[in-house]
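Show me any protein, keeping tokens residue-aligned.
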Amino acid sequence: MNDIQKVWNKAPIPVKLAVYGLAAWLVYRNGRRLLDKIKLRQRLQTYQAGNVAVNYTLPSGQTVTQPINLASVAGEVNDALFNNDWFGATEDEARAVNAVKTVPAPYIAQLEATYLQLYNKDLRADLLQYLGTDEWNSISYLFV
């Protein structure tokens, strides 16, 4: 027997139960996240028609149309806030802010509706809760 097996065999039952419980919780949590991502991917496929065509005028005067998928942006924000690590303890504020900045102000209401429909959460409330003051101030002009 190696040293780890010896220590494990001498460990009291409550310690073993705690280790098993933690392992089961980690397996459940990550399995649940994987299942949620699979379900979300299926829902995103149904929202592919939700692309918004945004017109940009270049400095040369030429107008360019670029499609933006609001469901994809909503997914990016949700992943940045809630699915950033195994334990769900950290948020990637910069990633969430950059995702929101890709959507022009006239389409923010549609983004909020898409986020609500996909995740049953309020986008503005989630951003206010998880972003710092500086990050929120950098995108607050979009939510007028």
The longest strand covers residues 51-57.
